[in-house]
Sequence to fold (321 residues):
Amino acid sequence: MNSDKQAKTGSGFGLRATAAEVITGCDLSGKTAIVTGGYSGLGFETVRALVGAGAKVYVPARRPDVAAKALSEFGDDVTVAAMDLADQDSVARFAADFIATDTAIDILINNAAIMACPETRVGNGWEAQFGVNHLGHFAMTKGLLPAVLKAESPRIVSLSSIAHKQSDIRWDDIHFAAEPYDKWKAYGQAKTANALFAVGLQAKFGGEGLLAFSVHPGGILTPLQRHLPVEEMVAMGWTDENGNVSEAASKMFKSTEGGAATSIWCATAPQIADYAGLYCEDCDVANLMTDESPRFLDVAAWAVDEAGADRLWEISEATLN
Fold:
């Protein structure tokens, strides 16, 4: 189990830290970053912080025209490219085209995701949340690894979620072939996969200078909730009937800039280098979950398990081959 250091470090930041605060004093001039889903929500604020620190950012996007318009304020500091995480041919083209530029990747942030969507199949009949959130990023990252490992001290950040507590990897029925589809178990499994991917990356490539992390960004209302009806968000206590954040949720929900803070912290903070492979939240390493853990904090043991990460890596490679 990858849990020896899975505990808070006292980073000096917390729940209300913003991306701008976390990156203060960090000079990314001459650095190159890639942010999937970088044209809305958390991704947009992540791009804003990286560009503000001097980085050149590439944003692969399923809707490049929409992305280019959304990111136009950043001018030549941001380059948009076409890529659909649900389409493996598209992923392969993007990775190959980028490798052909002979550019090193200093920071790769696997931010894009779909959540709690109706049952959908992508690829070779894969459940869409696993197929997009994990397999798409797995294939893209592997394709980009030569450029990542070319950088001096590269970092890869994979966005997980507290929803990983909903489900470990459903090893015997990942794609809901035997059991009825459950959108939240599917999302939870995908977010567990994102965390395990960071564990696997660190185990396999940490010796080549890579630092990999997984992140729970916190509760934020973004376009990620587009598949959820208002009634469901009311029932979960997130919003009122008019779609406004509820009083209870406001105490734990973050702004989008706050939601981007932990990704930026993992991508840039020098003090986190000794905690590679771990799951982070609120700009700190998260505690390992116990029976006393709060509902919306800490990480389940299955999401940082090295044996689970190895097993998932083998399954992912076999699925894509």
About this structure: Residues 183-205 form the longest helix (23 residues).
